[in-house]
TrEMBL record:
Residue ranges the record marks as coiled coil: none
Residue stretches making up the FAD dependent oxidoreductase domain: 16-369
Natural source organism: Flavobacterium gilvum
A single Gene Ontology CC term: cytoplasm
Domain of life: Bacteria
Stated name of the protein: FAD-dependent oxidoreductase
Length: 376
């Protein structure tokens, strides 16, 4: 890539901060850096035309975990860790709402529901039995009960007659959220370059040399916000997890409003106006879905269609309009990693499928790691 004098001068000279990834984390990191260092030069590099991973591809759930997910997490994490994580997700959602405004992100507090298939009676019983305990554990955060049993009023089929309702859950418009964040970054004089892939970087103690294919430049600090693509960076602590999603054509008289979870959060659906958006199924084929490649598989698409036509909208004519996928970042722990890799290199990754909730907070924490340093 042969750049002009002007391009080099304006875009690639005297850069204080370079952020890799223009998703929720990267943009919040940029906005926070601008707060801390008002006169610094900030550059964001993005390998896609739009944010590549899941920021513009997620289902738009403003959630912090269904009851069965929380019970599962308590089997592998301490109670303190789980409560901390939920607190972070909740705080992250408040940052997002405060930064962008509920009207901008089309925040709709319809509440969230967990459904249990009839053949999954044991899971329902476990959640039902542990419901008072989980409410007690979460009381310091929400000051009241979070989960309650409610009769199914949506006419779902093949499920337990009781759903577990969470009034604190909401839905947002993912596209509006990301467009608004991108506009905010540009307004704050943050440079964003798309279709730029970082091929290597070298921390020289005084600065970092960053290579973009056949071209390289230096930056004082380098921050990675690449979540699902952070396997190599974190030496395997973050693995990619593909999520397949579909959306229906408009459905006349659709009476479903809210965000819905099934099977420990592995399936999720919501209304988008008068359409149903449905995703998940990674648990049918973990190996294949541990990938940074976008795409669909027959086994998962068939399962999603079955759920749509047999459980969610039984006895109704429903047509699928569009399918896509996103790449999340997960690991053995649900705890996000916000860390310093070397003198001038930092990363904030492993959002565990909760990027909408926790991304704004992780971006802020990532930027705050640089506070020990002052630009000359």
């Amino acid at each position: 890539m042969q750049l002009s004098y002007w391009e080099l001068k304006n875009w690639f000279t005297n850069i204080d901060f370079t952020i890799v990834g223009s998703g929720i984390v990267g943009l919040h990191a940029g906005l926070r850096l601008r707060e801390i260092y008002p006169n610094s030069k900030i550059l964001i590099l993005e390998k896609g035309i739009l944010p590549e991973g899941a920021s513009t591809k997620n289902a738009g759930f403003a959630c912090f975990g269904s009851i069965s997910e929380i019970i599962e997490d308590l089997k592998t994490h301490t109670e303190e860790d789980v409560v901390q994580l939920i607190q972070k997700r909740w705080n992250g959602l408040q940052i997002l709402r405060k930064n962008l405004g509920d009207a901008t992100i089309d925040f709709k507090p319809y509440g969230g529901y967990e459904l249990f298939l009839k053949e999954d009676e044991s899971s329902f019983q476990e959640c039902s039995n542990k419901l008072p305990f989980i409410n007690e554990v979460l009381k310091p955060i929400f000051k009241t009960d979070v989960y309650a049993k409610e009769l199914d009023r949506f006419d779902f089929s093949g499920i337990n007659e009781y759903l577990i309702f969470n009034p604190f859950e909401a839905q947002i418009d993912t596209g509006n959220m990301m467009q608004s964040l991108l506009k905010k970054a540009v307004e704050q004089d943050i440079l964003i370059l798309n279709q730029q892939t970082v091929t290597s970087f070298l921390d020289n103690e005084n600065n970092v040399e960053v290579a973009l294919g056949d071209f390289s430049f230096t930056t004082k600090k380098l921050l990675f916000a690449t979540n699902g693509f952070a396997d190599e960076l974190t030496k395997g602590a973050v693995k990619p997890a593909r999520a397949q999603v579909l959306i229906t054509k408009p459905i006349p008289n659709l009476d479903i409003k809210g965000t819905f979870h099934l099977d420990k959060g592995y399936y999720y659906f919501r209304n988008v106006g008068d359409r149903i958006l449905l995703g998940g199924g990674r648990n049918l084929d973990f190996d294949t879905e541990t990938t940074t490649e976008f795409g669909q598989t027959e086994i998962i698409q068939k399962k999603l269609e079955d759920l749509l036509k047999k459980v969610i909208l039984p006895n109704q004519e429903v047509q699928i309009e569009h399918r896509w996928s996103g790449i999340m970042g997960i690991g053995n722990s649900k705890k996000p990693i916000v860390s310093q890799l070397s003198e001038n290199v930092y990363f904030g990754v492993r959002l565990g499928g909760m990027g909408v909730a926790i991304g704004s907070l992780i971006g802020t924490e990532l930027a705050d790691l640089t506070k020990k340093w002052q630009p000359k």
